[in-house]
Amino acid sequence: MRSFIRMGLIPASMFLLERATWWIPRWLDRILPTLDIEGTKLEKQWEQYREQEERDAEPDYDLVPERASTVPLQQARRYSNGTTSVPFHDTTFELGTRLEATPRNGDGGHGARHGRTGVIHTPHGDIATPAFIPVGTKASVKTLTPEQVRDAGAQAVLSNAYHLYLQPGPDIVDEAGVAAFENWHGPTYTDSGGFQVMSLGVGFKKVLAMSTDGLKEHDIRARGKDRWAHVDEEGVNFRSVIDGSKHRFTPEISMQIQHQLGADIMFAFDELTTLLDTRLYQEQSVERTHRWAQRCLDEHDRLTRARVDKPLQSLWGVVQGAQYEDLRRQAARGLVN
Q: Which residue, 41, 214, 239, 303, has fewest beta-carbon neighbours within 10 Å?
């Protein structure tokens, strides 16, 4: 009788009920534990990690209009190290050709008048601007050797502080510097982890949109409980894309990591927002990013004094403000001042 029930009646019932076989009330589903006996959950986490790796390596190109404006946070500032005056960085900008002002259509005013070419001089070589900088998230541009990256016309490579912090760790990279670590004989940048504030936070597993046309809020913004990055005034709590472990980034920690990575140019820790954040939140975010930039500058000052045996690095700020021109101007002025 038991064999008939197990081998006949139950399979026949499941066949007739189809998907309804697995239905349970939502209230019961919420309280029952999920037993990942066959490792399906781990497989999904691995797939999500690989997908996130790909997304983190590419979106910087798509977000150029929102993150393109950068401002060096130190120009000729110097400090006294005993009796020797030492500059804060060896990176300078040589102005090339200014673009002529072009008339705007209809209003009699002038259009773009601040465009220019130039050359950024770094300790490891020059960057003619404007420039396309490939992203080597983990100190490696995927599918290409450093020689192929160079042959493609790249002048510098940008790596990501968040990912190199997780693996292999900034202390390991510090032994050689990120340029030698990735076998790149040229200028280097490191992002601060600010992009992951959005890509693992409000934008986690969502469309990294430069336009909201045809998109709904749930396409762009993740629910709070689904996010792997949470922002507060002091910094950001991250979860690792490798194993889900928890990590804390602050402006000071970002500077410490980037100093260990040793890139020629590094960026201040900032908050990248989405186009669907409210105007009030964008205003608060711009002000917070400005406060974080000051904290980054202070920590950069301290670390430069402490690491006199290391090559000098240049710290740049990032202009935020999303689609609001007035906020972007406010952000730029705040960084310059």
A: 214
